[in-house]
Automatic annotation (TrEMBL):
Pfam families to which the protein is assigned, alphabetical: CHAP
SUPFAM superfamilies given in the database record: Cysteine proteinases
Recorded superkingdom: Bacteria
Domain Peptidase C51: 47-193
Name the UniProt record assigns to this protein: CHAP domain-containing protein
GO molecular function: ligase activity
InterPro entries assigned to the protein according to its UniProt record, in alphabetical order: CHAP_dom, Gsp_Synthetase/Amidase, Papain-like_cys_pep_sf
Amino acid sequence: MKRILLLLFGLLVAGVAALWAVKMVDVAPGREVGQEIDQLNGVGVYYNGAVGTVTGRNTTPDGYNLGLKYQCVEFVKRYYYEHLDHRMPDSYGHARDFFDPAVADGSPNKRRNLTQYTNPSRRQPQVDDLLVFAGTAFNKYGHVAIVSAVADDEIEIIQQNPGPLGNSRETYSLNHANGTWSIGNDRIVGWLRKE
């Protein structure tokens, strides 16, 4: 019994170490942190290597906080600032903090000065919506992305810092039934929109 417990403990330690390695180790040779890998409407998406990599804070010339380079939050806030001329009243917070669970579907999210929609929602996602993912046991901060394309049955997102093995673009199913729209990913809690 003692050997089995030691073996299980060893497997647990190895599993945690492997997850830490994926989160903290850059495994994409040929790419450098800060290298542009994609763009949407002229706003660049930069490679960040490991999810936990931080290389300083990005601010506008007048001091507006865009976020930590080259995290997911920094991209969506830079996109909204550069492409949509939008400043958020609360310019700080983790990705999960963009979605306020106390705000009803289709109501104003005052901290972000955007309209917030839940997943599912009465309103269909649109290009330029800011998509919010809940945190997980391995990433308590959540994730944010921008909707880059919408079709009848799927959406495409563009994102920064999906991890060293992730892609800057992903697609998810989009379902319309009984007057509501839902995106086929249980981690997506909702989306925000500049009206």
